[in-house]
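Typical record was shown:
=====
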Amino acid sequence: MVAFDLSRLFVAWAVVAPLCATCLSALTVGGAATAQTPQQAQKAELHLRESRVLTEAWVYLELANANYDGHRAKAMRELEAAVRGLNKSLQKNGTARQKAIATADDIAAAKVKFLREHAPGVINPQALSDLYLRQAGTILLQLRPALVQLNQPKVLKQVDAAAREIMAALRVR
């Protein structure tokens, strides 16, 4: 039996929980749009929601152990590229609120990455690491229909690539 300190799990959850909560609130609460046109405002809000969900998936991947033969890192790069593209659109057409939320999410993700890089002795049990990967994959699969419906081929391609890498990672273990 593998023994581990539950405090590590609580520390990880303390980092992820606020991001998850804000992602869920962003999906349900719209803000006042002041973008150039109503269509651009609506598109910017959708990009913000997609970016937040992809950032949440990225955080789960960051919390996983090891690299799973490079598949975890490849999935993370795909998600980073997708978020970067969505946030670029937000910076161009989003409201100040949307830009602030996207920036706050980037900061939260950077904090998670910093904590992982500077706490090398913290290793989760393999089962928990696999669970993080599965959760990231589930998030991507749930987002996929919206990307298809909203005609987001570039982001969809990146999400599909990340999902394939996650599945490959779980086969490697």
